[in-house]
Amino acid sequence: MTKSLANPEGLDAADRKFLSDIDRVGWHITNILRRAGEEDDGTPDWSFSCGLYSNFHHPEIVMFGLDSERRTDLINIIGHQVKDGKRFETSDNYGDIFERCLCAFRPVHQSWYADYLGLALWFYETYDFPVIQAFWPDKADLYPWEVGCNSFVRGQQPLLFHPKAPTEE
Q1: 20 to 30 A Cα–Cα from 22, which one of 47, 58, 81, 159?
Q2: 164, 111 in Cβ contact below 8 A?
Q3: Is the pTM of this model over 0.85?
Q4: For residue 127, what is the DSSP state?
């Protein structure tokens, strides 16, 4: 089950826009930006789609690092290709997303959903939807999980395909 505009009672303007984007375009992109004065836990800014799974049966996309406008543009490129019938798999690299490098995808482990995909959880009302993380390589074409990857690139892209470590209490 997903949220919809069919029952707008209790929805604020932002929720209505979110649902309208999904109905009109097929997906909505949420950008999470650190605000001045917020505690910096080292997590880079990120963006994620919502609606690709409900409308096209394709995993949602999450991307970290880069600036929010660039992440939005890239997720929209992916979304339009999905809308046209393309499927992005986690076993391949793709040269038609970034201008100068390949893009790789990995499945996001559900243990991370609550940390990074809150609005998607609200929309789907369950954890039962797939998400893939889009990764960009460093200048040597190494991805964050590869030995020798540039430390800045590695630090900008958490590896959400690994289960979240249990927290100590």
Answers
A1: 159
A2: yes
A3: yes
A4: S
